[in-house]
Write a structure and sequence with these properties.
The protein is mainly alpha-helical. It is built from nine helices and no strands. It is about 60% helix and about 0% strand. The protein has two domains: about 80 residues, no CATH class; about 140 residues.
Amino acid sequence: MNYYNYFTEIEEHFVRRRGKHLFVSPMDWSLIATWRDSGVPLHVVLRGIDRAMDTFFAKQPRSDSKVSTLFYCHASVMEEYARHMESHLGEEPSASTAPSAPEPAGDSGGPDRNTMLEFLNAKKSEIKSLSGKLSAREGTSEGIDRCVQRLEEIIRDLEEDRQVDLEALDRDLAILDETVVGVLRPLLAPEQIAAWEQEARKELKIYRKKLPRETYNKILENFLRTRIHRHFAVGELSLFHM
């Protein structure tokens, strides 16, 4: 299974099991990001979705009964993850126990070098364009420029065919993404952030009692990060979004 398709594989599997096409909501994507950040392997998520949907259709045999959100599957996904971790308790970390860990470049299921270069160059252009848009904002250009410089170093390493640790690379990109979001977030009006938070809390209201506080806060934060990325038209720096 190609872990770099983490988001699309989950979306497509959920829609397929649901039995009718559905546009997965931004909040659902934030939930997927939370599973990813928590280290839940792709195959475990898919198994959890299957278990949740099997239970739903057993209780709701009518053909017009549909699950409208991935949040319905969250408990089953986390139960499957707990079983997965328990079954590997005491083992050395390996491909079977690792979360959605990147695979070596060029291996089956992993991204090839040209695909990564195309992705990274596109992200570099998006972030670089922010420098011009935000040049008048004091203190913004320095953080953006550092991100661009680091991306250029990563791109040069790939172009020179140096050995790349993709797991380390994705951690590096996550740090750069945090920097970008940290620069952009203060530029937004407090009212805008408050409106997004209200939107998220409204959507999460019926699930709040079922979600651990840490998970709830993580989903909320992922939702806000997605909104910030979209507002400034810059994609998330992560190999999982290639």
